[in-house]
């Protein structure tokens, strides 16, 4: 499943003691001399991230401060009640004589839309610098007023240092995210502090689910009347000096400030901006700003934050897998490949190591209202297993246990299947499935938990791991077996219709026996049976029958087809060759499954190279193409795919290309573009 990474990691392990990691990491520290208008430099801890402009804060550009826990519900559509939400039922479609109820095209369209866009992920707040004249009047400063700008993100310690001059005076800002709480430690150094010309401000935006995509910025500052903030000054100086309570509709979030003594005042009663003015006459001011869903939260000092965060980052770089493609290489492409490996490791650690699966754009900005997609969880998070970062993966991989009972209800009560758990696609921490045809009819997310389980057992072959995943593995495979339908006339088990394939671009009512999904079903049932065997238990007979008699992978002219019965000329039809080329995933992303002919898979992959609209590929398509090339014995081609001109990353490691909101995707292998033509109903 991981040939390319596997080989690289193997090499890395063999040489582990030899790699001097730190200089390799630091060589790729992003350095900026002006803000990038669409991509921030970020600090964060996986559950929380803070995006900065050139000042190390959000002074000029309101990049997001987002978390895995910060979600809100909009108020219900006018005249609707919670009862209407509870009563929402989608349409029932026939599935080989079985009526299956899905969450789409049901009853009230306003309620359906509300369920799609709620809860939505909020931007928790903005922190910036405020500039003043000596006699205390605000100066409307822009980035152009700063000179000698220089900013460096030290990847090894997770520390962002930003320096510039304003009115001839130097300012240095150090920004670091705590690894123990969702807070950011800030230290400002400048003589402007002593003269009272430099303060810090915090500000709070309104958030709602009106827009599916919010990028590069999240939230609105122009509707202050729609939300409230309330300041309380702390009495206990060991904790927060000030707490601001931010309420939007029924949700409340807390921002606590501590550190050096300051005075805090609301700029105006009608706005949500507060100015934080240092009290001591010193040329350094350190403040910690903590965000939380509940009132009180620990407030480590700047120094504590800095020390503990540096230690955690050091440990991250030292302890996980490491790939050095530079040493000894004369290939000019090595530097760019190495740069991406390093920046992508940093960004994934900041954005995609939270308690829930990450959304497509991590904590950079919002797509799909900030919700996450369970089919993408494999691409976003399986790499943690391969890099040996188990603590980070385990933060979220128990999502399957958390979602198990609601997924069993979905399968057996709502959808009327005989057995098992049906995992949602687009969802949020509650596990509720967002309405939508694709959301309900996509099936490839189903097999993922079995793969996550297998990875964990491979790393820790213990009885505890077998027990830990047993119910998830069993319920997952039970639904896979239920979903397969025995076709009396052909004597095989069919999967679908209705179903959506990985590329989401075929008609669900005619899509039967899709190649990738059949191979993945075979793998999943095989691994699930093996799981029970290790526990000394027998796998249900239904798994074995389905596996034995599963429809063969569809073939036409010696090549695998997207699904059985697809038009013979689909290779030349842009309707079918314009989206995720899952046919190359058959062997590369997947290991060789029992129902796969690797020669046919290799020929099919090459047909994809010459017939797919590669200029319309994005994100994880390229790593998938690379993994297939590697598995088919073409490592050079694999590197070419990774460095393809349509798969480029900016100085911060964020993807280039696509629309503005799309630029916020993070790291290599993360989806960054989407096709609006198919987005209806999601
Ligand atoms: C949003 O509303 C739903 C439905 O009433 C509820 O189950 C959920 O807990 C709410 N979530 C938040 C973050 O308020
Ligand atoms: C797909 O099938 C369902 C019922 O099984 C039907 O209601 C729907 O209209 C069909 N869609 C298309 C595009 O034919
Ligand atoms: C500050 O200056 C910018 C750029 O000149 C301008 O767009 C903005 O409206 C000004 N803001 C205030 C509060 O005067
Ligand atoms: C703000 O509140 C007003 C009055 O309730 C409402 O009409 C308006 O749509 C709200 N604005 C937003 C962005 O929600
Ligand atoms: C049974 O399989 C055949 C061959 O794949 C197919 O043409 C037919 O439509 C299937 N029957 C049903 C009821 O789906
Ligand atoms: C290929 O993709 C590009 C977008 O990158 C699009 O403009 C073009 O129309 C597509 N070509 C075909 C034949 O669909």
Automatic annotation (TrEMBL):
Highest taxon listed in the record's lineage: Eukaryota
A GO BP annotation: carbohydrate metabolic process
Signal peptide residues on this chain, from the entry's feature table: 1-16
SUPFAM superfamilies on file: Six-hairpin glycosidases
UniProt KW keywords: Signal
UniProt-listed InterPro entries: 6-hairpin_glycosidase_sf, 6hp_glycosidase-like_sf
MF annotations from Gene Ontology: catalytic activity
Coiled coil (UniProt feature): none
Name this protein carries in UniProt: Six-hairpin glycosidase-like protein
Organism name: Pleurotus ostreatus (Oyster mushroom)
């Amino acid at each position: 499943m991981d040939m390319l990474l596997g080989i690289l990691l193997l090499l890395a392990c063999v040489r582990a003691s030899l790699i001097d990691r730190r200089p390799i990491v630091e060589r790729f520290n992003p350095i900026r001399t002006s803000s990038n208008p669409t991509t921030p430099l970020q600090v964060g801890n996986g559950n929380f991230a803070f995006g900065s402009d050139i000042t190390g804060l959000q002074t000029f550009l309101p990049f997001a401060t987002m978390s895995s826990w910060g979600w809100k519900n909009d108020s219900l559509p006018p005249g609707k009640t919670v009862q209407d939400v509870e009563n929402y039922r989608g349409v029932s479609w026939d599935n080989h004589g079985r009526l299956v109820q899905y969450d789409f095209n049901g009853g009230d369209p306003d309620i359906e839309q509300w369920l799609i866009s709620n809860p939505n992920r909020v931007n928790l707040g903005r922190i910036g610098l405020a500039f003043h004249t000596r006699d205390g009047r605000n100066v409307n400063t822009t980035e152009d007023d700063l000179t000698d700008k220089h900013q460096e993100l030290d990847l090894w310690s997770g520390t962002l240092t930003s320096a510039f001059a304003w009115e001839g005076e130097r300012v240095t800002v150090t920004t670091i995210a705590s690894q123990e709480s969702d807070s950011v430690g800030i230290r400002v150094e400048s003589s402007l502090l002593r003269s009272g010309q430099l303060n810090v401000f915090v500000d709070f935006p309104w958030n709602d689910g009106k827009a599916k995509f919010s990028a590069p910025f999240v939230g609105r500052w122009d509707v202050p009347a729609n939300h409230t903030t309330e300041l309380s000054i702390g009495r206990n100086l060991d904790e927060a000096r000030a707490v601001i309570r931010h309420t939007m509709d029924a949700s409340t979030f807390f921002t606590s400030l501590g550190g050096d003594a300051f005075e805090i005042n609301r700029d105006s009663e009608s706005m949500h901006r507060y100015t934080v003015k240092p009290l001591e006459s010193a040329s350094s001011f350190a403040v910690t700003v903590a965000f939380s869903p509940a009132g009180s939260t620990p407030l480590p000092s700047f120094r504590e934050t800095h020390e503990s965060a540096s230690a955690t980052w050091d440990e991250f770089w030292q302890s996980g897998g490491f790939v050095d493609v530079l040493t000894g290489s004369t290939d000019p492409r090595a530097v760019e490949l190495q740069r991406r490996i390093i920046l992508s490791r940093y960004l994934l650690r900041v954005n995609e190591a939270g308690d829930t699966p990450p959304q497509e754009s991590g904590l950079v900005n919002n797509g799909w209202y900030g919700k996450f997609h369970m089919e993408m969880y494999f691409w976003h998070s399986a790499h943690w297993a391969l890099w040996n970062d188990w603590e980070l993966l385990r933060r979220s991989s128990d999502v399957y246990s958390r979602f198990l009972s609601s997924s069993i209800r979905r399968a057996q009560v709502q959808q009327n299947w005989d057995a098992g758990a049906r995992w949602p696609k687009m969802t949020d921490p509650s596990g509720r499935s967002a309405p939508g045809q694709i959301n309900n009819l996509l099936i490839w997310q189903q097999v993922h938990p079995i793969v996550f389980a297998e990875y964990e057992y491979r790393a820790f072959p213990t009885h505890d791991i077998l027990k830990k995943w047993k119910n998830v593995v069993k319920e997952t495979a039970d639904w896979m077996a239920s979903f397969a339908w025995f076709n009396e006339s052909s004597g095989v088990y069919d999967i679908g219709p209705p179903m959506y394939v990985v590329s989401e671009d075929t008609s669900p009512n005619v899509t039967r026996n899709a190649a990738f999904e059949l191979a993945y079903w075979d793998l999943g049932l095989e691994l699930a049976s093996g799981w029970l065997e290790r526990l000394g238990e027998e796998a249900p007979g239904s798994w074995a029958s389905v596996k034995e008699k599963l429809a063969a992978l569809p073939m036409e002219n010696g090549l695998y087809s997207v699904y059985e019965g697809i038009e013979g000329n689909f290779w030349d039809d842009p309707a079918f060759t314009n989206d995720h080329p899952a046919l190359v995933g058959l062997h590369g992303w997947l290991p060789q499954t029992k129902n796969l002919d690797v020669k046919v898979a290799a020929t099919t992959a090459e047909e994809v190279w010459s017939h797919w609209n590669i200029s319309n590929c994005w994100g994880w398509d390229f790593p998938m193409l690379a993994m297939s090339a590697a598995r088919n014995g073409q490592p050079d081609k694999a590197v070419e795919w990774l460095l393809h001109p349509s798969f480029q990353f900016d100085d911060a490691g964020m993807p280039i290309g696509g629309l503005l909101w799309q630029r916020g995707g993070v790291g290599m292998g993360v989806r960054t573009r989407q096709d609006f033509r198919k987005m209806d109903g999601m």
